[in-house]
Design a protein that fits this description.
170 residues, mainly alpha, two-stranded antiparallel sheet, elongated
């Protein structure tokens, strides 16, 4: 296996390419119907790619160098994946972008017309239904409780990444 510096530098970017391609394949083949689930699965595939490439290309390095390079590769990959997550997810989550897209598609609208497709109560109902269907929330006697905390773990991971990268939390 090659043992060159450019190969080691390329590891996180090759893994990122695996992430992006895997995400597209998972969504287009409908193996994942949720954007968040496809992003999580493709992120894990990129992590596997990092470990496999690091194992092959860094076998000649001392263990301490391998650990440092693997950590640097993972941090670079995680940072690029964090940006990718938001590039993919922002159109789904942003109120401003949704309103601008609707205006571009439908043309000029009055406030009343905008409220027909973007009513806060309706959107809340849709989000609660989606969270309940995915098991992230449970509803008992009209009250919502946290269910499977997967997204909370992801949010905590991103908060930690932000704190490490920027020195601030949310």
């Amino acid at each position: 296996m090659p043992s060159c510096d450019w190969c080691l530098t390329a590891i996180p970017w090759i893994a990122f390419a695996v992430n992006v391609v895997a995400n597209a394949v998972l969504l287009r083949t409908r193996l994942c119907t949720s954007i968040v689930r496809s992003l999580a699965c493709s992120f894990v595939l990129g992590c596997v790619a990092i470990v496999l490439m690091a194992t092959c290309w860094e076998a000649a390095l001392p263990a301490s160098d391998r650990a440092a390079r693997l950590a640097a590769a993972f941090l670079t990959y995680a940072s690029a994946s964090y940006v990718f997550f938001h590039l993919v997810h922002i159109p789904e989550a942003s109120v401003r972008i949704r309103i601008l897209q609707e205006l571009t598609t439908r043309g000029p609208l009055s406030e009343r017309e905008i409220l027909r497709f973007y009513d806060a109560g309706t959107i809340l109902d849709i989000r609660l239904e989606r969270l309940t269907r995915s098991g992230q929330l449970t509803c008992k006697n009209g009250r919502y409780f946290t269910g499977r905390p997967r997204m909370l773990y992801v949010a905590r991971l991103f908060r930690l990444a932000k704190r490490v990268a920027l020195g601030v939390g949310t």
